[in-house]
Amino acid sequence: MAPDRRYHHGDLRDQLLDGAEKALREHGVEKLSLRQVAREVGVTHNAPSRHFPDKQALLDALALRGFRRLGDAFVAAAATGDDLPVEDRFKTLARAYLDFALHNPTLLTLMFARKHSASGGAAMAEAVTRAFAVPVAITAEGQARGEVIAGDPLRIGWTVAVALQGLASFAGAGLIAPDAIDDLLDDTVTRLTRGLMPRP
Q1: Which of 163, 141, 149, 137 is closest to 196 using CA atoms?
Q2: At 80, is the secondary structure helix, strand, or coil?
Q3: Residue 46 has what pLDDT?
Q4: Domain final residue, candidates 14, 35, 53
């Protein structure tokens, strides 16, 4: 049966990204190809070139989409319970990060493995900054309330982000038993935030 080549031109880019993300999950980044994505979507093999001139452009767009989605998850997590102690807020943030990692393991690997080009442009920088501004903002708020040590909130916030990325990587790689993830998440954030408390 011939593939269905009907599509709305305005939706083609998103359809291609959906197809690429599915192929990424199933086959990994090395086997991802524009022809494969075209087959997945049901369009001619040269149709993707209207939006993605080569595979690198497709990887860049996937990574950008991932960081934007992660940013949305962080912003939503930070919007709940902003009057809670900083430890609880970081736990909510960590849960959002872990959920993203467990549902999008290959996409997360692409985002952080620099398979996308190092010069992803202003849109990539903006998406990364927006996502990781959230732990920085929570850090600054914790400092204002006397719950976090003084210092550059950017450096402290990045410390939190690095810890969350490490936990997500271990969980995504299956190095942590599924029934142990929640307890380890709580322990990680508790130990981290207690280490960030002001000293007497």
Answers
A1: 149
A2: coil
A3: 87
A4: 53
